[in-house]
Amino acid sequence: MLLPFKIAWRFLLDKKLQTLLVIFGIAIGVSVQIFIGLVSQGLEKTLVNKVLAYSPHITVYSKSGGFSDWQKEADRIRSNFPEVKAVSPNVNSQAWIKLGKMTIPILVRGFNILDTERLYNITAAIYEGSSPVNNNEVLLGKELAERLGVKVGDEVSILTLGRQTATMKIVGLYDFDVAKINNAWVISNLTTAQNFIGFGDKVTGIELEIDDPFQADVVSDQISRALSGEELALSNWKDQNQLIVSAIVGQKLVTLVIEFFIMLATIISIINILTINVFQKSKQVGILKAMGLTDFSSSLVFVYQALLLSLGGIALSLGFLAVFLRGFNRYIVTAQGLPVVKVTVDHRFIGLSILIFFGVSMSTAIFPALRCIKLNPIEVIKNA
Amino acid sequence: MPNVIELIDINKTYGTRVKSQILYDINLEIEEHSINSVIGASGSGKTTLLNIMGILDRPTCGEVVIDGSNTKNMTQCKLAKLRNQAMGFIFQFHFLLQEFNVLDNVLMPSEIQRNNRSEVKERANRLLDMLGLYKYRRYNVLDLSGGQQQRVAIARSLINNPKIILADEPTGNLDLHSSEDVYNIFKQMNKEYGVAFVIVTHDKHLAGRVIRIQDGKIMLPHNESRIQKSHT
């Protein structure tokens, strides 16, 4: 085993420039393939995050507008569906906020603020003041507060659809970095919103977040079958954003095709170079066979060459990949200096990609190895 | 003397559609410790005969017995091992491996045998010393002259202590002086190590028993003679 390895090593060293070029080619192929995969993942995450930033994966709602046994349903979901990460009952109502001569349309949203931590993380978005713990306390978005010219501690009047007015105290200001939401959502605790629209103990819906957003339709169906109330219905983000979902799936497929062809090109280049190497070294292989090197051992020379080239290429590809990732996150940025697509290092994906490449590239060594087995030393000696 | 090679009724035909018979009913014995020169015109079948003796090529029919082992039903792997253990080869173009230095080239047959013992290295150094190449042992083979390269090939052929060395026109590519050197080395090795030689040659440097081959047939017995020719 050691001699074929030694011969393979010497053969590669003998053609240093060729070897370096092949390793460089493999490294480029592998690193670009992984990089494209990571960018695709990053793009998908970025898109999904942007689409789902302030909307739930699944919403349970009542066909009649509100439902009272929401505690039971929320508990049932929590206990039966481990893939559900956040369960947040809420009350929503259109309303107007009034200050002086200004009347602005808003959406009153009542939550148990703690329940929203894994959904919207309202607490983290508060940049001034605190959460609305008590009744008749609200949070206002940054843009809305600026428009109204109010600050923490001020009171504002909110008009319901039934033209009733409630006075609320501003206890905090939030910023979700989305002006549309900052302008519209007035957030209170659950009881304040329930009282505001005269809903008693009812909620308008339960919003859910799950582990894998792309499973929203499947999980939604499962929950739908498990829920008891016939007046309850479910909606999920995939059904509501079908165009975006199909764009993401399309982009994933295109990426997969690109990755496949990059790998194919890299593998073909390895086969080519090893086959050329068999021709280049046929004289040496013939001499070694004449001296008693077995067909198996001589074919091992090319398997080891494939091994050394693949390992060299993979090692260098990790360096390239680090450069690509750093460059992408540093230079492909928005006007604010944030990455357009945040590409992160997914060790599992990188490991798997390398493993697949390694397996395929090693299996391709079989072609030059077979060619080597067929090599007859007599031919070599005759044609010297 | 026991035979190190026996060829029994060897015929060799090349080609499938157009058949061309190269060797006809060859029966030949090579004794241990002997020196044998195979001579004949170009295309007479000298090299084919040597390749069959060296079990590099199989006869179309007939049997090759190497050191008492009939090779007829041996696998390629067994043939390779037998070649490695019992034989040494020297070719016209020396066929050294340019990727390795002089010492590595000499040690190659022993490495194929997976024999890395220190005695082998000592033997390699001793052979190189005898052949005047010790100071070049770390040189790349391409940095040596043609005569020196052929001497490296001779050292390589002797490293596994073979019973026979098959040399195919070993001096065909050398000048007269280097050719004489090579033949003197063969005689010295035959004397010191008892190794038998079969030398296919075109030139007049005949040594030991002369086997004349003509149109694929060995001219025996009346053409066989022993020539004692001094090269010094």
Q: How do the strands and helices of this protein lay out in sequence?
A:
The complex is a heterodimer of chains A (384) and B (232).
Chain A: H1 2-14, H2 16-52, E1 58-62, H3 70-80, E2 84-99, E3 102-111, H4 122-125, E4 126-129, E5 137-141, H5 142-148, E6 155-159, E7 165-174, H6 179-184, E8 185-189, H7 190-196, E9 205-210, H8 216-226, E10 232-236, H9 237-240, H10 242-280, H11 282-290, H12 295-331, H13 347-364, H14 366-374, H15 377-382
Parallel strand pairs in A: 3-8, 5-7
Antiparallel strand pairs in A: 1-9, 1-10, 2-3, 2-6, 2-9, 4-7, 5-8, 6-7
Helix pairs in contact in A: 1-12, 2-10, 2-12, 2-13, 10-12, 10-13, 10-14, 12-13, 12-14
Chain B: E1 3-14, E2 20-31, E3 35-39, H1 46-53, E4 61-66, E5 69-70, H2 76-86, E6 87-90, H3 102-112, H4 118-130, H5 146-158, E7 164-168, H6 176-193, E8 196-200, E9 208-214, E10 217-218, E11 225-227
Parallel strand pairs in B: 3-8, 3-9, 6-7, 7-8
Antiparallel strand pairs in B: 1-2, 1-4, 4-5, 9-10, 9-11
Written description of the protein model:
- The complex is a heterodimer of chains A (384) and B (232).
- Chain A has 384 residues and is of the alpha+beta class.
- Chain A is built from 15 helices and 10 strands.
- Chain A folds into 2 domains: 2-50 and 244-377, no CATH class; 58-240, no CATH class.
- Chain A has a 6-stranded mixed β-barrel.
- In chain A, α10 (242-280) packs antiparallel against α12 (295-331) and α12 (295-331) packs antiparallel against α13.
- The longest helix of chain A is centred in the C-terminal third of the chain and has 39 residues, at 242-280.
- Chain A is elongated.
- The two termini of chain A are 28 Å apart.
- The model of chain A has no long low-confidence stretch (mean pLDDT 87).
- Chain B is α/β, with parallel strands linked by helices.
- Chain B has one domain: Rossmann fold (3-Layer(aba) Sandwich), CATH 3.40.50.300.
- Chain B has helices at residues 46-53, 76-86, 102-112, 118-130, 146-158, 176-193, and strands at 3-14, 20-31, 35-39, 61-66, 69-70, 87-90, 164-168, 196-200, 208-214, 217-218, 225-227.
- In chain B, the strands form 2 sheets. In chain B, strands 3, 6, 7, 8, 9, 10 and 11 form a 7-stranded mixed sheet that branches. A 4-stranded antiparallel sheet of chain B has the order 2-1-4-5, with helices on one face.
- In chain B, β1 (3-14) and β2 form a beta hairpin.
- The two termini of chain B are 28 Å apart.
- Classes of the chains: A alpha+beta (384), B alpha/beta (232).
- Chain A binds chain B through residues 3, 6-7, 10-11, 13-14, 283-284, 287-297, 377-378, 381, 384, and chain B through 51, 54, 56-57, 76-77, 80-85, 89, 91-93, 95-100, 108-109, 111-114, 156, 168.
